[in-house]
Amino acid sequence: MAFGEKYRGCEQSEEAMAAACGDDFTAVVTECGELWAFGKSGPQLGIGKKGHQPVPIRVGGREEFDGAAVVMVDAGKSHTAAVSANGTLWTWGDGENGKLGHGDEEPQQRPTMLLKEFFGGTPAVMVACGDDHTLVTTASGGVYSCGCGNSGKLGHGDDGDRQILTNVQAECFGGDKIVYVAAGPDHSAAVGAEGKVYTWGDGNSGRLGHNNEEDKYIPTEVVDTALSKVKVVMVSVGFAHTVAVSEGGTLYVWGAGMFGLLGLGDEDDRMVPTKVANFGRSPVLMVACGDVYTLAVTKDGGMYSCGQGQSCALGHNNENDKWFFTRIKAQYFDKKKIVSAATGFSESNKTSHSLAVTEDGVLYSFGGGQGLGLGDPHKVHRPPQVRMSMGGRRRVRDPNGVRRLIPTRIAPQRMLGARVGRCHSLPPLHVLAFAMGTTHARLGSAAQTETPVGVEKKSQRNQDKEPADAVTTSDDSIGCAYATMSDDLLKQVVAACGSWPEGRAGKLEGVVRLMGGGMMKT
């Protein structure tokens, strides 16, 4: 079956941890584990009231998530899910097809808890939302799914819906522990602990990577020479394409090639993983698949896009298609390095929207629709245009819809100055202040008022030593205190100079990259 015959319309969702975009709405997690949302009115915002939110609004606060910090968030077409630091899963939004996992199809206006008992008593680690289904990984490496089962995308061997989270049998993965999952409108993907890739669901246009267009009703390993010698750490899925990133930062793409969204210079479909080498000498850290476009972030902080320009979400200040991955100008991000990206869609406005997170936790948005979070509408007036969908449908786009063609900064004060993402290092001045108050002999050991945790405080008089101020008078006699610190204390200093996600999530390479920690880790 040709791709266009099965295409259902642009209803994009995409996995992302620092920021997640759905249909005309966005959710972001801040450094301290708070959740903020903005965009189209509906239960998917989780704020318990109706009304469009043009700027970020906090979703409850810590008390909303049983006192635990939120580690990650993801968004589907009309539902949202988050995992908290204690391994609890929370879902809210439209409950159609049972995608919230609560055993019914009732909508949830606020985050609603799904306890560990739903996962055999093991903590949830990662969640991924498709248009109408949800995938969850657990600390034991298991996978659970719920929602709409068309084309077998839930992985249970049939196309039936599931209203509660149901375990995908471990045998489907050959006993491999799953560390990463991705969910699209009609297909799903996973990465095992050893770097193997598994896909299932709709096989149209080769999106599953098995060198055919057959549907797969259970997870099936992508066995291909291009991936045989690399360890994949993350995957992303769009409507009809899939992208994988290796541990070394190489990008592989397969599936539908319309509008150049594979970045290979043409519109041909690819039935098997194909290597992309358009990023100079910088490795790729993470990737996000949109409906008709793709975003990639590189280790040097660059952000690249390719695909359909009329999506308005490529960030190049025009609506031209890009058939190769093209770097978005650094000045659009105030020359800051990008660490994470997310993609979404505006069904009502027939455009897409993108989010970028900088290394210092500032959020930039661009594209069209209500999910930009920029406050007062900014409209680009132009005559009506006909946009061709991938299914060949003619759709007249609102000529006066809200859109930004270049990345636009969302003022941090809109989120009370909080930084977006769970992985950050302290600004240099903060590190200096920390050193002055703790361990560095030249900078401030004499000013230390508190003994670091785990270090026994001894009386200098009992040790027949001079007072601290006398000890620090000679630089040559002391040197750098860091050189003589114990390993345990050094680890505490390093930990205090940055933030990192709690629990198992912070140990999974692919998840950390989505949280904005890939640059720090590499």
Tell me about this structure:
- This protein is mainly beta and 522 residues long.
- The longest helix is centred in the last third of the chain and has 10 residues, at 487-496.
- It folds into 2 domains: 3-426 and 510-521, Regulator of chromosome condensation 1/beta-lactamase-inhibitor protein II (Methylamine Dehydrogenase, Chain H, 7 Propeller), CATH 2.130.10; 428-496, no CATH class.
- It is globular.
- The chain has a 4-stranded antiparallel β-sheet, with no helix packed on it. A 4-stranded antiparallel β-sheet has the order 5-6-7-8, with no helix packed on it.
- The relative contact order is 0.13.
- 9% of the residues lie in helices and 34% in strands.
CATH topology tier name of the largest domain: Methylamine Dehydrogenase, Chain H
The averaged pLDDT comes out at 82
**What is the terminal separation in angstroms?**
42 Å
The oligomeric state is: single chain
Low-confidence region ranges: 1-16, 378-400, 440-478
The CATH superfamily of the largest domain is identified as Regulator of chromosome condensation 1/beta-lactamase-inhibitor protein II
Secondary-structure content class: mainly beta
Helix content: under 10%
Number of helices: 8
Number of domains: 2
Can you list the strand order of the major beta sheet? 1-2-3-4
Q: Give the biggest sheet.
A: 4 strands, antiparallel
Estimated radius of gyration: 24 Å
Q: Beta-strand level of the residues, as a percent range?
A: 25-35%
